[in-house]
Design a protein that fits this description.
This protein is α/β, with parallel strands linked by helices and about 350 residues long. It has helices spanning about 10-20, 40-45, 60-65, 85-90, 110-115, 135-140, 150-165, 195, 210-225, 255-265, 315-330, and strands at about 1-5, 25-35, 70-75, 95-100, 130, 145, 175-180, 200-205, 230-235, 240-250, 275, 290-300, 305-310. The structure holds NADP nicotinamide-adenine-dinucleotide phosphate. NADP nicotinamide-adenine-dinucleotide phosphate binds near residues 77, 78, 186, 314 and 318.
């Protein structure tokens, strides 16, 4: 049995980790931490998890993780905080999957240009970017994973195979994404207040979101760069779910069947990738699951490809992929604890 601890367990990504891990046959949750609800049982904070999660949350202390014999810790804190605690966990032999951006970049200056000075930069080279289907071999070998952002997961997974195969142009890619409000986390702000989100649809951080350099650095690593993206995120009035619509120029006389051959070959034996050839792509179809559904259509008048991808931002976009990475790191089947059907409605 793998002993697991979660830092920031009471946030949305943390709670999703608790939900999925509570039913994971190879996992025992032994340590949950938070600040505001410290001293509370987890199923008091999230009553939906009654009968599943009765552990009491405590404030973070590395000693508690050692005493609880934690083998692997998930960090579900806001960006800029994990760098202060990840080194002490690793130094005590505890593997780490960090859901923030702190260990997603190899190049410290790229991280510092959009976040802040990195105080644990020496660990960046040891960290593996946790896009599970792309970096699975490296993830199996590492003790530290920087789990991807939700937008990057939905955009990079369809793009990487097509760029690698040379089917699409490297220049002029546009990614237009929509996210449910849980992507902004549990703390309410004016921007995520019900009155500002309900009956509302808005773009934010247009062509200036911090996920752009994250995606461009992965595309450079995988496909050779530079591959500049125009990325426009939007907030939509739903709780969970994310759709990305990606516009690219096609090289040569590529057909929709060629796109199928490329993606089907690349993602053969990757159980969480579902290709939706001439079928609808809808956030509802992946709700509560670790699937990514990918569809596409060619506009022959302009020789452009339109790719549609959907994920549940809290599962494949956060906790589910983090658990998939834990499974790889601990030598389990990557589907362990995750092979569940999506909610039909
Ligand atoms: N939500 C998503 O869809 C999603 C997707 C991909 C990645 N992520 C990443 O996952 C991490 C957690 O995101 P989330 O959506 O779960 O956020 P969240 O709901 O705001 O949860 C973060 C938790 O961290 C704790 N925390 C500890 N110290 C804090 C501090 N100084 N300031 C604020 N909070 C502090 C808070 O609980 P206490 O105050 O009780 O300690 C809070 O519940 C983030 O790095 C985020 O970027 C989230």
């Amino acid at each position: 049995m793998i002993h697991v601890g979660i830092v920031g367990a009471a946030g949305y990504a943390g709670a999703e980790l608790v939900r999925i891990l509570s039913a994971h046959a190879n996992v025992k949750l032994t340590c949950l931490t938070c600040r505001q609800d410290a001293g509370e049982r987890f199923d008091t904070i999230y009553p939906a998890l009654s009968c599943w999660a009765d552990l009491v949350c405590h404030t973070y202390d590395v000693k508690a993780f050692i005493d609880a014999k934690v083998d692997l810790a998930f960090i579900a804190l806001p960006h800029k905080l994990p760098m202060a605690i990840v080194p002490e966990l690793l130094d005590n032999g505890i593997k780490v999957v960090d859901l923030s951006a702190d260990f997603r970049f190899k190049d410290v200056s790229a991280y510092e240009s959009c976040y802040q000075k990195h105080t644990a930069a020496g660990y960046l080279q040891k960290a593996v970017y946790g896009l599970s289907e792309i970096y699975s071999e490296q993830i199996r070998q590492t003790g530290l994973v920087g789990n991807p952002g939700c937008y990057p997961t939905s955009i990079l997974m369809p793009l990487i195979p097509l760029l690698k195969a040379g089917l699409v142009e490297k220049q002029g890619i546009i990614a237009d994404s929509k996210s449910g409000v849980s992507g902004a986390g549990r703390s309410a702000s004016a921007a995520t207040h019900y009155c500002h989100v309900n009956e509302s649809f808005k773009a934010y951080k247009v062509a200036s979101h911090r996920h752009t350099p994250e995606m461009e650095s992965v595309l450079t690593d995988q496909c050779g760069g530079p591959i500049p993206l125009v990325f426009v995120p939007h907030l939509v009035p739903m709780t969970r779910g994310m759709q990305s619509t990606i516009y690219t120029g096609l090289k040569g006389n590529c057909t929709e069947a060629d796109i199928w051959d490329c993606l089907a070959g690349f993602y053969e034996d990757k159980p969480f990738v579902r290709l939706r050839r001439q079928k609808p792509v809808d956030t509802l179809h992946v709700k509560g699951s670790n699937f990514i559904d990918i569809g596409w259509k060619i506009d022959p008048r302009q020789n452009r490809l339109v790719i549609l991808s959907v994920i549940d931002n809290l599962v494949k976009g956060a906790a589910g992929q983090a658990i998939q990475n834990m499974n790889l790191m601990m030598g389990l089947e990557q589907t362990a604890g995750l092979w569940q059907p999506p909610c039909p409605v």
